[in-house]
């Protein structure tokens, strides 16, 4: 069977050159006599893989030297707890922006460890836009400000980085990291589950400014203490070695295509084509305010929801898979992360136009 265009929100497609390379190196990694998954994490081969992956990620994102880059486990959801445990640092509260399903989860988890002040919310508008800078009601005594730059389920993306004065800005970049250049120095902490733009599930990346380390809440598990992880090069215990290796191959692939500037241009073109197709049709609709539309996750509905199942079925027959929207919002969602080629989006757009002609 041919490979399909997989529009899943995650785990998502990986670049084909990465998969081919992993296949070629599966039985025997570069003279080591073994697969990367069989290597000791403390052996020189894996240590070199780990160090190269970190160096390449630092280069891609231009991470300043006063930031630690951690390769951890437990997904972005574990970070919902680790962040207040590490960053409240004696303060009673933190500011959170409530902009969709994932920020809501982050807020609920943070409330287990401290007070949360919701500094903006678009829930009354069913999360169809990002709040504007002048709508943020930041509090003077907050330890940090948390937000979700890209809400994977609602398909809402901030078109700007909020200005939060001298407070550390904490960003859940799970579904938009590496999609274009960012200025890391604007953030106190960035975290991202790997299974969208980084690599396979099982790895979460944390990029944290050094001065924020070392003041965890009493009772913080050792594994969730960023300082411990930083001092141990993310190897306090056995790290997710194979996922780390595959992430390294993805970083190398990104460098090869010209880095995040080039990736950003490709992603902008893909998103523009899909939104234009939706907006030009009388049949498909995207509910998000144009300025806040996600480059990575594009939800859309059909004029007649009774055709949803037919759409999914016919799309699958055309090798376009995993287009069903999240169960909480319904409709369709096309996730078009870095590894989704332009041809995949073109195939989807062609299919949608044909579907409208036949059923619209
Ligand atoms: N945050 C965002 C923005 C996400 O899209 C996801 C997963 O899809 C998560 C957090 C949760 O990630 P994980 O499953 O790695 O815990």
TrEMBL record:
<feature type="binding site">
    <location>
        <position position="195"/>
    </location>
    <ligand>
        <name>pyridoxal 5'-phosphate</name>
    </ligand>
</feature>
<comment type="subunit">
    <text>Homodimer.</text>
</comment>
<dbReference type="InterPro" id="IPR015424">
    <property type="entry name" value="PyrdxlP-dep_Trfase"/>
</dbReference>
<dbReference type="Pfam" id="PF00266">
    <property type="entry name" value="Aminotran_5"/>
</dbReference>
<keyword id="KW-0808">Transferase</keyword>
<keyword id="KW-0963">Cytoplasm</keyword>
<feature type="binding site">
    <location>
        <position position="152"/>
    </location>
    <ligand>
        <name>pyridoxal 5'-phosphate</name>
    </ligand>
</feature>
<dbReference type="GO" id="GO:0008615">
    <property type="term" value="P:pyridoxine biosynthetic process"/>
</dbReference>
<keyword id="KW-0663">Pyridoxal phosphate</keyword>
<feature type="binding site">
    <location>
        <position position="102"/>
    </location>
    <ligand>
        <name>pyridoxal 5'-phosphate</name>
    </ligand>
</feature>
<feature type="binding site">
    <location>
        <begin position="76"/>
        <end position="77"/>
    </location>
    <ligand>
        <name>pyridoxal 5'-phosphate</name>
    </ligand>
</feature>
<dbReference type="GO" id="GO:0030170">
    <property type="term" value="F:pyridoxal phosphate binding"/>
</dbReference>
<comment type="function">
    <text>Catalyzes the reversible conversion of 3-phosphohydroxypyruvate to phosphoserine and of 3-hydroxy-2-oxo-4-phosphonooxybutanoate to phosphohydroxythreonine.</text>
</comment>
<comment type="similarity">
    <text>Belongs to the class-V pyridoxal-phosphate-dependent aminotransferase family. SerC subfamily.</text>
</comment>
<feature type="binding site">
    <location>
        <position position="172"/>
    </location>
    <ligand>
        <name>pyridoxal 5'-phosphate</name>
    </ligand>
</feature>
<comment type="pathway">
    <text>Amino-acid biosynthesis; L-serine biosynthesis; L-serine from 3-phospho-D-glycerate: step 2/3.</text>
</comment>
<keyword id="KW-0718">Serine biosynthesis</keyword>
<dbReference type="GO" id="GO:0005737">
    <property type="term" value="C:cytoplasm"/>
</dbReference>
<feature type="binding site">
    <location>
        <begin position="237"/>
        <end position="238"/>
    </location>
    <ligand>
        <name>pyridoxal 5'-phosphate</name>
    </ligand>
</feature>
<dbReference type="GO" id="GO:0004648">
    <property type="term" value="F:O-phospho-L-serine:2-oxoglutarate aminotransferase activity"/>
</dbReference>
<feature type="modified residue" description="N6-(pyridoxal phosphate)lysine">
    <location>
        <position position="196"/>
    </location>
</feature>
<comment type="pathway">
    <text>Cofactor biosynthesis; pyridoxine 5'-phosphate biosynthesis; pyridoxine 5'-phosphate from D-erythrose 4-phosphate: step 3/5.</text>
</comment>
<keyword id="KW-0664">Pyridoxine biosynthesis</keyword>
<dbReference type="InterPro" id="IPR015421">
    <property type="entry name" value="PyrdxlP-dep_Trfase_major"/>
</dbReference>
<dbReference type="InterPro" id="IPR015422">
    <property type="entry name" value="PyrdxlP-dep_Trfase_small"/>
</dbReference>
<dbReference type="GO" id="GO:0006564">
    <property type="term" value="P:L-serine biosynthetic process"/>
</dbReference>
<dbReference type="InterPro" id="IPR000192">
    <property type="entry name" value="Aminotrans_V_dom"/>
</dbReference>
<feature type="binding site">
    <location>
        <position position="42"/>
    </location>
    <ligand>
        <name>L-glutamate</name>
    </ligand>
</feature>
<protein>
    <recommendedName>
        <fullName>Phosphoserine aminotransferase</fullName>
        <ecNumber>2.6.1.52</ecNumber>
    </recommendedName>
</protein>
<dbReference type="InterPro" id="IPR022278">
    <property type="entry name" value="Pser_aminoTfrase"/>
</dbReference>
<feature type="domain" description="Aminotransferase class V">
    <location>
        <begin position="4"/>
        <end position="348"/>
    </location>
</feature>
<keyword id="KW-0032">Aminotransferase</keyword>
<keyword id="KW-0028">Amino-acid biosynthesis</keyword>
